[in-house]
Each structure stands twice: as C-alpha cells, then as structure tokens.
C-alpha cells in the first residue's frame, strides 16, 4: 500500500509471537500495518522437552528488524505474545539466546508426576485465572516442571519472563513483569487482588519475578552493541509489551469504545468484557479472569473455535462464501453439529472429544463449511451470553472471511448491536498504539461494519439455536442421546 511519509512518522516495529507463526510488522503511529514479515515458530524435540528454537528465531527477528528499519523510519519496538509462553533466563541476553532452560512448547504433553504434583499447588480460581487447561499450558506449571526436572538450573537462573518481556529484555537488557501477560492464565498472578499467586512464594520464585512495568513503558533503547552488530536503528525505543488478546482489546479502547464485548476468532474464540462481574466467571465453562493493559480485570471466555471449525468443515474447505440458503437448508433438515470435537471442553463440561453430527449429514463441501459456520456462530453466541450484558459486540479475526458468520451471530443476538472489523491486524495495531498511550488527542481510527439485515435468517436461526443449546447442555449433563452417535469424519 502507498503511505505518505508523514503517515510513517513514529513507525512502530511490532513483533507478534503466535504459537504457530511469528510476525514482524511495521505499523504506523495510528495503527495501520505497513509491512509484515512472517516465519514459522519452529519447535525442536527434547530432551528435556519439546521446545521453541529461540536462538534461530532471534537471528530472524534481529536481521529482519534491521531490514525493516531500512525501509521504514522505525522509532519504537514492542512485542506481543500468546499467553502460554514464558522463558527462564540467565544474566546475559546474548549467551545461548539468554535462556537458562529451553522454552517449553505448551502443547507438549505433561508427565503424569508433574500433572499430579502441580495440581494441589495451583490455588483458587482467582489465583489461576482459569481452569486447568490441556498439556503444558500455564506458565506456573511450566516453571514447576523446570524446577522439578533441573532444580540447580532454576536456582542459577536470573529471571522468569513472559514471552513479550523476554524479547524486550533481549533488545534492551531490562527485565520487567507486565499485568496483561501475567493475567493471561499464567497461574502466577491473581488479577482480582493484584498479587502473585501463593505458588510463587511456596516455590521460592519471587526472586525470578522482576518489577512490574506498564505495557507502554519505555524500558530503554536497544542495546548499543546489538544495534551495531545487526545494524538496527540507533536509539530504537523498547516497550514492555503485553498479551496478544489484551492488546487487541486495547485497540478498541484506544478507538474510544466504552461498554463493549470483543470476540476474536482464530485457533481460539476469545471473548473479553471489562463489565463482567467476577462472580459470574465459571471456570467449568471455559471462562477466565484476564487483565487489560491497565491491570483491570477482564472477564474472558475461551473455546477452540478454529479447531472445531476444521473438524466440521474438513481440512480444505472451499474458499467460496456460503450462501444463506445453504445454512437455511441445513437448519430445515435439522443437521446439527454438537460439541466438542477437540480435546478441550470449552463451554460444555465433559464434552471434549464427543463432538457429533445429528441429523442428515452435509452432502457437499459447501454444506460442510456452512455447518461449521453456524456451529461456530452458536459457540460465539454462547461466549457472549456467558460474559453477560453489553450493548455492543465487536467481532474480529479469521472467521470474518465469510460474511455469513457475522450475519449468523447478529441473527443469534437480536437484542445487541453486532459489528465486525475486517482488519485482521488487531494485535499489531493495538501493540503499536501503546507507543502513543497517554499522548493521543483523539481516538485512534477504527472502521466497524454492520452485518446488515438478518430478518430472513432470524426466525429459523432462533428456533435452531434454542434446540441446539438444550441438546448441547444435556449432552454434558446426561450423556449424548443415540441420535448424537454419528461421528463426523
């Protein structure tokens, strides 16, 4: 895209570390992504466990940051990351990528002894911020595993850093803790009470936790020796950074929105609301207690929507958009996808791995995709209802590639104002907007679209949703009935 030089003033380099891919973006001061570079987030086998290749990734980040700096007037660097990544580091950011022990891949299965030993130490729901999730999810559980496996290495380590703060430390040499990242199901931080969870003191981890810094705080300039070695922009400011979904939420706050629920779609459907009462949070229905970048509680809800979509739609769904009449035909036949197809219960306790198709199976690839869309729209509506009141619902993420998804959610939510954002760069935009936090005179620009008239969908969708909800909830309370037994393959 063509961008005037004035629009590039204050350009921010945003490192967005996802589980599968890592993106390095040049983003304008008002949150417009100008250029994106991407690489796979490679994982190496053990011993001692499956782990991320931070040494190779560091070379990619630093060399491409230099290249990006040759094409854009970069002034600031900030990192965002998924909430299940933490790095135990030593004193020297340049020695073996700074790591004291390899960074655990959170999808690495846990040894049974680690699972059983950790469980009684994990504390209350508010100490954890979530239920016990699958595999090696949760930073506290990863650190517990490290300490049980290699106590001497942990004793010699200097810091335990969240993923964005690790990259900030690599560049600036300054270590920090940050609220939104520790508040992302780390099991280390009690968001409600603004304190570390009891496991931190019980395991002697206080010395590994650096002082807190705001996500937008400048930790320092890029280290001079690093700038010289890689040809990085001199004086590049390094910010603390934060949790990816919290930064996406911040993007809407920066645009001036107040009372809203945001639902982001991808591998996970992630819903956030700053108005959800703490007493409403139910860890048995995929609900979480997160933190926004200001340290305030965010009611959250999680379900693996992207993986559920793939199970129903198939591995190579057609790129064509699904016509409304395809979904209306599936509704008329009472073809229904019932949770849950993946290894996560999501909103329906006991449903993991028990996903079924009830009624006549879809006959074509476009019908399979249509069924996946209405199923994920139903999951989205459940997420929104779980979070409670909120007049405005904002949808973003990969599901919006098919406009039918937004129309179905709007049909399912007749008493709310549903809008959607086609910009797929919410994390990068939100992270870049941190650079002007406290300095903006006007709200950051944002374009939200209206799904349009859904009156032709609403009556059929309302009846279908009522029946789906009753059957889905009965499934985990009383066992699936026989007409659920057709497994979709």
CATH class of the largest domain: Alpha Beta
Q: Kindly report how far apart the N and C termini lie.
A: 42 Å
- How many individual domains? 2
Question: Beta-sheet strand percentage?
Answer: 15-25%
Give the overall shape.
globular
Main pleated sheet: 7 strands, mixed
Query: How large is the count of helical segments?
Result: 16
Relative helix content: 25-40%
Rounded mean pLDDT is 93
Q: Fill in the CATH topology of the largest domain.
A: Nucleotidyltransferase, domain 5
Cα radius of gyration in angstroms:
23 Å
Reported CATH architecture of the largest domain: 2-Layer Sandwich
Commentary on this structure:
The protein is built from 16 helices and 21 strands. Residues 1-6 and 476-489 have low confidence and may be disordered. Strands 1, 2, 3, 6, 11, 12 and 13 form a seven-stranded mixed beta sheet that branches. Strands 16-17-15-14-20-21 form a six-stranded mixed beta sheet, sandwiched between helices. Strands 4-5 form a two-stranded antiparallel ribbon. It is of the alpha/beta class and 489 residues long. Helix 10 (244-254) crosses helix 15 (426-433), helix 11 runs antiparallel to helix 13 (365-387) and helix 13 (365-387) packs across helix 14. It is 34% helix and 19% strand. The chain starts with 10 loop residues before the first strand and ends in an 11-residue tail after the last helix. Strand 16 and strand 17 form a beta hairpin. It has two domains: 5-240, 2-Layer Sandwich (Nucleotidyltransferase, domain 5), CATH 3.30.420; 256-422 and 455-484, Nucleotidyltransferase, domain 5 (2-Layer Sandwich), CATH 3.30.420.40. It is globular, with a radius of gyration of 23 Å.
């Amino acid at each position: 895209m063509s961008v005037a030089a004035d629009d590039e003033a204050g350009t921010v380099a945003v490192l967005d570390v996802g589980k599968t891919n890592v993106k390095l973006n040049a983003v304008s001061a008002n949150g417009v992504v100008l250029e994106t570079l991407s690489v796979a987030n490679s994982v190496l086998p053990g011993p001692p466990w499956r782990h991320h290749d931070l040494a190779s990734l560091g070379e990619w980040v630093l060399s491409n940051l230099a290249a990006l700096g040759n094409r854009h007037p970069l002034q600031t660097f900030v990192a965002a990351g998924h909430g299940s990544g933490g790095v135990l580091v030593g004193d020297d950011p340049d020695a073996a990528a700074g790591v004291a022990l390899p960074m655990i891949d959170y999808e690495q299965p846990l040894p049974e002894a680690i699972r059983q030993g950790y469980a009684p130490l994990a504390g209350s729901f508010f100490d954890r911020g979530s239920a016990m999730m699958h595999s090696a999810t949760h930073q506290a559980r990863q650190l517990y595993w490290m300490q049980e496996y290699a106590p001497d290495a942990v004793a010699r380590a200097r810091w335990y850093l969240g993923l964005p703060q690790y990259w900030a430390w690599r560049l600036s040499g300054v270590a920090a803790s940050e609220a939104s990242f520790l508040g992302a199901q780390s099991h280390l931080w009690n968001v409600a009470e603004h304190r570390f969870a009891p496991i931190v003191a019980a395991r002697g981890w206080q010395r590994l936790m650096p002082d807190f810094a705001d996500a937008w705080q400048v930790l320092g300039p890029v280290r001079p020796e690093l700038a010289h070695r890689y040809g990085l922009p001199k004086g590049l400011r390094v910010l603390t950074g934060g949790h990816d979904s919290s930064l996406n939420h911040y993007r809407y706050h920066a645009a001036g929105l107040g009372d809203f629920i945001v639902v982001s779609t991808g591998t996970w459907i992630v819903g956030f609301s700053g108005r959800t009462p703490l007493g409403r949070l139910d860890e048995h229905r995929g609900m979480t207690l997160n933190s926004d970048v200001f340290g305030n509680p965010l009611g959250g809800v999680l379900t693996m929507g992207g993986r559920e979509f793939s199970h129903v739609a198939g591995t190579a769904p057609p790129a064509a958009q699904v016509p409304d009449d395809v979904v209306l035909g599936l509704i008329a036949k009472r073809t229904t996808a019932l949770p849950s197809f993946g290894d996560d219960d999501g909103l329906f306790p006991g449903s993991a791995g028990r996903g079924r198709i009830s009624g006549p199976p879809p006959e074509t690839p476009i019908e399979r995709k249509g069924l996946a869309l209405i199923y994920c729209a139903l999951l989205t509506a459940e997420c929104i209802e779980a979070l409670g009141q909120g007049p405005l619902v904002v949808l973003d993420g990969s599901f919006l590639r098919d406009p039918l998804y937004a129309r179905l959610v709007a049909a399912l939510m007749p008493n709310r104002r549903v809008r959607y954002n086609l910009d797929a760069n919410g994390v990068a935009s939100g992270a870049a907007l941190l650079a002007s936090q406290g300095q903006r005179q006007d709200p950051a620009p944002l374009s939200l679209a209206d799904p349009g008239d859904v009156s032709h969908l609403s009556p059929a969708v309302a009846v279908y949703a009522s029946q789906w909800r009753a059957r889905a909830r009965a499934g985990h309370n009383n066992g699936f009935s026989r007409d659920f037994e057709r497994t979709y393959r």
